[in-house]
């Protein structure tokens, strides 16, 4: 089994950027898990399957095959990128992420990534609490909702956005946080033994260096 650094936290807290950099600093493999939920959401939207129907969603899962190849997830052999960033896909992902059938379907897919030797840096919402409860290091990465809204808009609009855009994005993010942290199965929360890192005032380089340092301090063989 690989050693595991689990990085969880709310929407747009910088998990992907930071997890990728931590993997780079420590020579590990980076795996993001949000795209798994986004891929299922995209499949449902593209095939006119109602995401509000747990039965319809559960039965669609048998037509979906997810594989990790060349540093990213593929669905039924196809690699999707910009399709997954649409906000409708993100909000649908958080709707279907509450269904136990979806979470069970994805459990082994994620655990398989720890097979072999080396280090796995995986980011998501429940990596430390549900996927790898035995992870060597668990980080709960957070930032204020305003800062997270600003980061998401910078990503999506290259820094050009109005105050109204910012307010709408902050409301969107707050709604997603609420849904993610109030679902019954594997809700978004810091694992009991996770270290919380608030990176509101830190750059992604500073945050990554801090996490890499915490890992080295564990002095694992
Ligand atoms: O991280 P990202 O914004 O791409 O995730 C999209 C949605 O997928 C989240 O809002 C959350 O509902 C769900 N998710 C999850 N567990 C994970 C990763 C993502 O429930 N490990």
Care to describe what's here?
This protein is α/β, with parallel strands linked by helices. 50% of the residues lie in helices and 15% in strands. The strands form two sheets. It has a five-stranded parallel β-sheet with strand order 2-5-1-6-7. The chain has a two-stranded antiparallel ribbon with strand order 3-4. Strand 3 and strand 4 form a beta hairpin. Helix 2 crosses helix 5 (87-96). It is globular. The structure holds cytidine-5'-monophosphate.
In short:
The chain is an alpha/beta fold and 221 residues long. It contains ten helices and seven strands. A hairpin with a 2-residue loop joins strand 3 and strand 4.
Layout: helices, strands, pairs:
Layout: E1 3-8, H1 15-26, E2 29-32, H2 34-46, H3 54-60, E3 66-69, E4 72-75, H4 82-85, H5 87-96, H6 100-111, E5 119-124, H7 127-131, E6 137-142, H8 145-157, H9 163-182, E7 195-198, H10 204-217
Parallel strand pairs: 1-5, 1-6, 2-5, 6-7
Antiparallel strand pairs: 3-4
Helix pairs in contact: 1-10, 2-5, 8-9
Bound molecules: cytidine-5'-monophosphate (C5P).
The site of cytidine-5'-monophosphate has 14 residues, from helix 2, helix 5 and helix 9.
């Amino acid at each position: 089994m690989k050693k595991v650094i689990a990085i969880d936290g709310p929407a747009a807290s910088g998990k992907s950027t930071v997890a990728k950099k931590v993997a780079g600093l420590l020579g590990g493999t980076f795996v993001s898990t949000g795209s798994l939920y986004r891929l299922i959401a995209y499949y449902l939207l593209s095939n006119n399957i109602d995401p509000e129907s747990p039965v319809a969603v559960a039965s669609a899962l048998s037509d979906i095959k997810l594989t990790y190849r060349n540093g990213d997830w593929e669905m039924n052999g196809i690699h999707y990128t910009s399709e997954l960033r649409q906000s409708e896909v993100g909000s649908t992902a958080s709707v279907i992420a509450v269904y136990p059938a979806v979470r069970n379907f994805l459990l082994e897919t994620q655990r398989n990534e720890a097979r072999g030797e080396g280090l796995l840096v995986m980011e998501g919402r429940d990596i430390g609490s549900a996927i790898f409860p035995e992870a060597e290091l668990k980080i709960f990465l957070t930032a204020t909702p305003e800062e997270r809204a600003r980061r998401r808009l910078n990503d999506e609009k290259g820094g050009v956005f109005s105050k109204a855009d910012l307010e709408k994005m902050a409301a969107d993010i707050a709604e997603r946080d609420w849904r993610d942290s109030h679902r019954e199965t594997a809700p978004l929360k810091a694992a009991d033994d996770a270290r919380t890192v608030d990176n509101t005032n830190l750059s992604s380089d500073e945050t990554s260096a801090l996490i890499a340092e915490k890992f080295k301090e564990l002095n694992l063989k």
